[in-house]
Each structure stands twice: as structure tokens, then as C-alpha cells.
Amino acid sequence: MRNRRRLVSDDSNLGDIWPSFADVTSTIALIFFALVLLSYVRDLVSSRRLAAFEAQIQTSERKLRLLEADLSRTRLEIEAGQARLARSEKDVADQQQVIAASALELAALRARLSGIALLRVDVLERVKRALELELGTVTKQGTPLVRIGDNGNIVINEGVVFESSSYELKPEGLALLGTLALALENVLKDEQVRENIDAMVVQGHTDERGSSAYNFDLAAKRASAVLNYLFETNPRLEQSYGSFFAASSYSKFRPLNPGNTEEAYEQNRRIELSLVLKDANVRKVIDEYTENLAEAQTGAAPVAPAPAPGGAAGAGAVPPPATP
User: Fold this and answer.
1) What gap in Å lies between CA 60 and CA 81, rounded to an integer?
2) Pairing relation of β-strands 270-277 and 197-205?
3) Which of 2, 68, 136, 271 could form a disulfide with 156 if both were Cys (CB 3.0 to 4.6 A apart)?
4) Is the pLDDT of residue 315 over 80?
5) Distance CA 279, CA 254 (A)
6) Angle between helices 171-188 and 212-233 (to 10 degrees)
7) What does the pLDDT read at residue 284?
8) Which SS3 state, helix, strand or coil, does residue 34 take?
9) Sheet harboring 245-251: ordered strands across?
10) pLDDT tens-digit profile of 116-127?
């Protein structure tokens, strides 16, 4: 009886149970829909992010390819630059070799030209020593008998050789000129001297007193008198080496002392012996240097420097003048 009442009582509550179940089911469905919607939204957002990431990756890949292309070009440029640098270093090394060779050639040129110039001084010094050894160094008045002038010429004291305003040789001057003739013969026996000396010029100089015409004539006659006596006292000098000699007149136009005192006049009246080098020898030395330099720059084998050119005694020299 009690059980039946309970069942009846339960049946009476079924109407209240079903609405609650429907609410629960709706709520669950709604939650599930929300979850599905949330998952869809999340997937949609993820897809968009993935697309954005993929776009960024593609952009980065394009940039990376551009960078790789730039890197490749840069590498090629570096390699080309290294090749140019290597060629430049080789060119610099070649130029340094050329410069070194040119420096050696220039040093050789200077040595040869210096040798030619020193030869002239050596010849004059040898002649001067020969005169001083034979006749002494000073005159009776205490003035130098002969000396080497600033122009490199041997200067002979005019008072030893000539009287004033005269071209007649003084007896005491003959000894000096005789010794000079032997000394000149001795130096001209040297083949190297003959190869490089074009002429030995006896120069006459006067002081400023008198007309130009008179002084030119007097200086020329004095120079010719000296030269003629050199040949007369030593015939071998004329026979073997006469073509080396010449006489010239400078009148009053090359004074050693510009003053107008007796001392200045005495210094300006003089005989000088000048040695003229062969320009052809100097020119040949320079031409050989330039030729070797050009060949060194083009890579050709340089030509060995030749000694100073020789030739027949007196070739191209000025012949001695006739006696006035």
C-alpha cells in the first residue's frame, strides 16, 4: 500500500522532471555549439596567421634569394678586384725592377760622365805638375808660375812669357814653353786622353787698355807665338798631335779681375790652355743610357755600355793657325 502510494507520488512528479532535462540538453547543445564555434574561430584565426606567416616566409625567401644574388655578385667583384690587385702588384714589381735597373744605368751614366770630366781636370793637373816640377811654383816676383783657373784652364803668368804690349817671347819664357811642350806630348800619348779630348786651345787675353782691334790682334799674336814655339821646340808634338791644337784670341773681354788697377791689369794679361772635350763622346754616353732605359721599359735585353769612343788623333779638331 505504501509502495503504491510512492509510485503514484513519483508519477505525479514526472511532469516536473522532463522540462528540467530539456533545459540541460539545450544547455549542453549550446555549450557544444559554442565550443565548435570557438574551435572554428580559432582555426580561422590560425589559418589567417598561418597565411600571414607563409607570406612572411615567402617574402623572407625572396629577400634571401636577393641577398644571395648580391653576395654572389659581391664575391665575383671581390675575386675580380683580387685579380686586378694581383696584376697591379705584378706591375708594381715590374716597375720597381725597371726603376732599379734605371737607377743602375743612371749611376753608370753619372760615373762615365764624371770620368770624362775628371779626365780633363787630371790632364791639366798633370801638365801643371810637370811645369812646377821642372820650373818651380812661383816666379821671381813671388806670383804663381801657372795655376788652374776657376774655369778649369791652365793659366800661365803673362809676365813670364811676354813683355808689355809685345808678342815676342821672352828668353825666360822659352824654358817654360819647352817644358810645356814635353808635358803636352806625354799626356797626349795616353789613348784615353786622345779619345775624349777634341782640342787643346791656347788662348790669348789682354787687359782693357787699348782698342778692341789692337787687343784682339795682340792676343791672337801671343797665342799663335806660344803655339808655334811649342811645335818648334818639340817637333814630335806637331807631327803626332798637331791636329789637336788651336789658338784663339779673347782680347779684353774675359777679365779675371774687373778692377782698373795695375794688379788687376796684370791678372787679366795672361795665356790660358783650355782642353775641349769631345761632345760626341758625351752625346754617345747619354744616347746609350736612353737606349738602355727604353729597352728596359719594353722588356728587351739592355745593351752593355760601350767605352768612350775613340778615333783618329785630332778628328774634328781645329787646325793650328798660321804665324801672324
Assistant:
1) 30
2) antiparallel
3) 271
4) no
5) 23
6) 70
7) 65
8) helix
9) 146-148, 154-157, 270-277, 197-205, 245-251
10) 667 777 888 888
Mean pLDDT of 194-202: 90
pLDDT tens column, 78-103: 999 999 999 988 889 888 888 887 78
Domain positions in the chain: 2-65, 119-279
pLDDT band at 226, cuts 50/70/90?
very high
| Residue whose C-alpha is closest to residue 110's, from 102, 120, 121 | 102
3-state secondary structure of 157: strand
pTM for this predicted structure: 0.56
Burial (Cβ within 10 Å: 0-12, 13-18, ≥19) of residue 128: buried
How do residues 272-286 score in pLDDT, each as one tens digit?
A: 999 888 876 666 666
Helix residue spans in the chain (DSSP H) = 2-11, 14-135, 158-161, 171-188, 191-196, 212-233, 235-241, 262-268, 279-298
User: Mean pLDDT, to the nearest integer, of 115-144?
Assistant: 78
Using DSSP's 3-state secondary structure scheme, residue 262 falls into: helix
Contact in structure between 233 and 174 (CB atoms under 8 Å): yes
Q: Show the cell assigned to 69.
A: 644574388
Contact 187, 275 (CB under 8 A): no
Bridging pattern class, strands 197-205 and 245-251: parallel
Dihedrals phi, psi of 68, to nearest 5 degrees: -65, -40
Work out whether strand 146-148 and strand 154-157 pair parallel, antiparallel, or are unpaired.
antiparallel
Burial class (CB in 10 A: 0-12, 13-18, 19+), 306: exposed
Question: What CATH number labels 119-279?
Answer: 3.30.1330.60
Quote the pLDDT of residue 248.
95
